[in-house]
Design goal:
CATH class of the largest domain: Alpha Beta
Largest sheet: 6 strands, mixed
Number of domains: 4
CATH superfamily of the largest domain: Ribonuclease H-like superfamily/Ribonuclease H
Oligomer: single chain
Number of strands: 15
Number of helices: 19
CATH architecture of the largest domain: 2-Layer Sandwich
Structural class: alpha+beta
Shape: flat
Strand content: 15-25%
Distance between the termini: 53 Å
């Protein structure tokens, strides 16, 4: 049964703030953790989590604001679960952040925290809603409003968040799956299929690979393929049909389809070229995807962030966070987020990004929402030749210009057609560089509306004041703030959902840190002015 936690609102005369020295009490009151309590803990909408609990009268839930705040503290300070609980038990600052008032008070057990995160994950799987994202959105909306942060100009960037997995070769992954299947099947089935598994389960998958010569790997893949087919035909139906199924067999089914194919009841190994970057990289994290970027290999997810960057803002805050497979292009991820960012910050009119985000599909959405895209780099090789400019003069009318002529194009059956006077073109000093299509009486330039939008995007950075042209680069400092919560860009967790928990927790922490430093600076200024 869901119940809000209001206990922290009532002062306890036996609380530790009443038994410590006045100096220590003052330090607690002025601490960062006290601000976490005031700005985050007290503003968590616990009712958003009521959906996780039973509606009938039963034992009340563990305080949600304590659970959520503990997750935030864990990621803010890079704590293990053991260190987190030690801090909750014995650290007065942590108790202050969690709204606890007595020395002996511990709001939940380790099991309660794990169960809470499992409930969040289950709810996410069932509904697609991450409730911690809702906490981030609610807090950010309130912070933007109270601090009067302008959201009309924003910037975006992404970073790789590597999963905490062991890297497997293809054969090692297939063998590791066999070992894990053998562990979960019944003792009766282990005896029945002992001969099938015996070559693979006596050692670790790493030891199995270590003893093989490179030349032996193709034949071993064929042998493993036959084992997979028999498991698929005999064991999988038995365990997959069990109550709730067996998770490892769901993973097995996916690995089987990714690496093998059946032709007339014969198992065929797919070539390496047929494998995609979305194939399972590890049985410990089936969400992990593979990507090679700048000659570096990445296994995990990508986190995309959007933040305010109006130069008039006293501070800038992260407004949107999303987590996606790292083999999805940044431009596609942005395409999915443009509508969401516009809904969160309706007055956004300018978005800065690098060349990876530009696309014609995004141009259409930017135009729809009246957002000017500011691209700081051009992706790919641009065609040389005479520059052609397009200017829109009304909803369906344009002017097309080259350095010597300006013409009004006409709309043909499928596209716009601009005809340049061949007489002027023949005497033009740039004629040798011009790549326009030459007809009998004119040189012709064809274009669609998307071409106009693309040209607008590429030229937009030249149309804004010089001091705004480098706004995007500072988002890299925000990326570094997130990266510092990882170990060499590698997470301590696995899976898309846990990566999202990390991202939103750190996002809330980053925004809090900026607000806390800003408020402290203001307090110092007031103190100096009064002195």
């Amino acid at each position: 049964m869901f119940k809000k936690n209001t206990k922290h609102m009532q002062s306890d005369i036996f609380g530790f703030t009443n038994i410590v020295s006045p100096k220590m009490a003052k330090e607690l009151q002025e601490s960062e953790e006290q601000k976490i309590y005031e700005l985050i803990f007290c503003n968590i909408k616990e009712e958003d989590f009521a959906c996780l609990y039973s509606e009938i009268d039963s034992r009340p839930n563990v305080p949600v604001n304590c659970l959520v705040s503990a997750i935030l503290l864990q990621h803010r300070h890079k704590l293990t679960y053991e260190k987190l609980f030690d801090s909750i038990k014995f650290n007065l600052l942590t108790k202050t952040a969690l709204g606890l008032q007595t020395l002996e008070e511990v709001p939940f057990s380790e099991a309660s925290l794990f169960n809470f995160q499992n409930k969040l994950n289950t709810y996410f799987i069932e509904t697609g809603i991450n409730l911690l994202e809702r906490v981030f959105d609610n807090l950010t909306e309130k912070q933007l409003k109270e601090l009067k942060i302008r959201t009309d100009i924003q910037r975006t960037d992404s970073f790789q968040a590597a999963s905490n997995i062991r890297r497997y070769s293809r054969l090692q992954l297939l063998v590791e799956m066999l070992i894990r299947i053998y562990r979960v099947i019944s003792q009766e089935d282990q005896r029945q299929y002992e001969e099938l598994f015996s070559a693979y389960v006596k050692k670790t998958s790493g030891q199995f690979i270590y003893r093989l010569d490179t030349d032996a790997i193709p034949s071993e893949l064929e042998k493993v393929g036959k084992v997979y087919k028999e498991i698929n035909d005999t064991l999988k139906p038995k365990y997959k049909s069990a109550d709730g199924g067996v998770d490892i067999f769901k993973t097995f089914e996916r690995v089987y389809l990714e690496h093998f194919t059946e032709v007339e009841e014969k198992i065929i190994i797919k070539s390496s070229e047929e494998l995609t970057s979305s194939c399972i990289q590890s049985p410990d994290d089936i969400d992990t995807t593979y990507r090679k970027k700048n000659n570096k290999q990445f296994y995990g997810q990508t986190v995309n962030i959007v933040e305010t960057c109006n130069p008039e803002n006293p501070i800038n805050l992260v407004t949107d966070i999303s987590v996606h497979a790292n083999n999805i292009d940044d431009s596609k991820e942005l395409n999915e987020r443009i509508d969401i960012v516009k809904e969160k910050t309706p007055d956004i009119s300018e978005l800065h990004f690098d060349g990876a985000y530009g696309s014609e599909d995004n141009d259409v959405k930017f135009d729809k929402h009246s957002v000017t895209p500011i691209q700081t780099a051009i992706r790919g090789i641009q065609s040389s030749g005479v520059e052609i400019n397009i200017e829109q003069i009304s909803e369906d009318k344009y002017l097309v210009s080259c350095p010597k002529q300006t013409v009004e194009p006409e709309f043909t059956r499928k596209r716009f057609k601009a005809e340049f006077d061949l007489g002027i073109c023949s005497s033009c000093s740039l004629a040798s560089e011009c790549k326009l299509t030459k007809k009998k009486t004119a040189k012709v330039y064809y274009f669609l509306e998307k071409e106009y939008l693309k040209k607008q995007r590429l030229a937009s950075i030249q149309k804004i004041p010089k001091e705004r042209r480098s706004l995007r680069t500072n988002v890299e400092a925000t990326v570094s703030e997130f990266a510092r919560k990882m170990n060499n860009r590698k997470l301590k967790v696995r899976g898309l959902f846990k990566t999202a928990i990390f991202a939103f927790a750190v996002g809330i922490s980053v925004n809090f840190g900026r607000i806390y430093r800003y408020l402290r600076a203001q307090e110092l200024e007031r103190a100096l002015a009064a002195a």
